[in-house]
Amino acid sequence: MEISTSSYKRCDVVKANGRVDSYTAPELEEVLNSVTGNGTYKIVFDMSNVDFMSSKGWWVLIETQKKCKRYNRGELVLYGIQDRIRESLDLVGMGSYFKIFDDLTAAVGSF
Amino acid sequence: MPTAKFPARFESLEKISQFVVKAAREAGFDEAAVYAVDLAVDEACSNIIEHAYGGEGRGDIKCTCQIANNNLKIILRDQGRPFNPSSVAEPNFGAPLEELKPRGAGLFLMRKLMDEVDFEFEAGSGNVLTMVKHRSK
Description:
The structure holds two protein chains of two kinds. Chain A is α/β, with parallel strands linked by helices. In chain A, 39% of the residues lie in helices and 31% in strands. A five-stranded mixed beta sheet of chain A has the order 1-2-3-4-5. In chain A, α1 (25-37) packs parallel to α2 (55-69). The longest helix of chain A has 15 residues, at 55-69. Chain B is an alpha+beta fold. Chain B is 33% helix and 28% strand. Chain B contains three helices and five strands. A five-stranded antiparallel beta sheet of chain B has the order 1-2-3-5-4, with helices on one face. In chain B, β4 and β5 (126-134) form a beta hairpin. Chain B is globular. The chains are: A alpha/beta, B alpha+beta.
């Protein structure tokens, strides 16, 4: 899995590629922790190239969302989530914890 | 009846995924069902490594895929501690974000994604998890 971070004026975009499972989720956690550690709590997670996501990955996003939303200082939003992954997210009922965008400009512009 | 043995490490998850995805495609499943099987097996194997073995590198996971009568049956065997599904706390999805606890999602997903999920422990041979997906569903 490859992860990149781009900084915009009002938010950071974290983009992952490939498979997020118990093996790769710690890497994602590390990147997201470093973004929030730098004081950025407005984050777009670009999932357009993520083709597999297990519950381990969702827990990393949930923990990041908790940090971002604390004190109303920001939010983690999702962009480009593939249909099958979205279905599994809705199946467990975790979808309600995230705003989901189909358009990157709209996701970045939401902040 | 293809069977393969994988070291019980998180690194193996991708190879296990490739193995079951191939079987699900051979069984004639559509891509949504293939993903469901893939995810259920990933969650099951992560639980085996974390809970049955209590960490990585403590044994193997043996995976068997059987295709019969429009069904795909996946059998996962491990030599870890006996797993009792009733000991797993229910996930508290629906709770406010701050109260959400990281627990039980794997088992919950497996039961939602597959048509049958059955755990057995056999003295001497360990845990046997059998999951079945019907092609029509």
